[in-house]
Amino acid sequence: MAVLPIRITGDPVLHAVASPVTEFDGELTQLVADMFETMEAAPGVGLAAPQVGIGLRLFVYNWEDDDEVLWRGVAVNPELLISTTSLDEADEDDDSEGCLSIPGERFPLRRADRAVLRAIDLDQQPFEIDATGWLARIFQHEYDHLDGILYADRLGHDDAKAARKVIKKRQWGTPGLSWTPGEEQLEG
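RE: above sequence
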């Protein structure tokens, strides 16, 4: 297994719709293992293939809920059904979200409180998870990556403006930038 470089906003793979997975082979199994290692080293609770430069429709997740239930898995070629998202303003504490492709930053974002994830695993077995709360948020965040959407693209006006300012200040938003968990230097 290996820790992979994580692409930073501006890299074209992050802003394009990912392709369906068609090959279930050793390369895919290795990619998923590397993605888990990368996510854990970052640390994060989810990681989509486009974030490591692979334009495929898959993501991994690893999160423990308040009841100490561990939600860990891989979603290949997922579909996501979500409930209605509240129009209330996002709460700075309860709705704060971050992204490994916009490292070190967090902004409040309203998400649907419920999401139904339908996908297949590495053995090509279908599964379904009816998620609420943070798990629903994780699924929505990672699924967005597969459609070329970063959470900063969904922020309200003031927070979107602040995110753009940070991205400009850090000289992100251009192709070829990445960072590798465990290393201090920005690559690219």
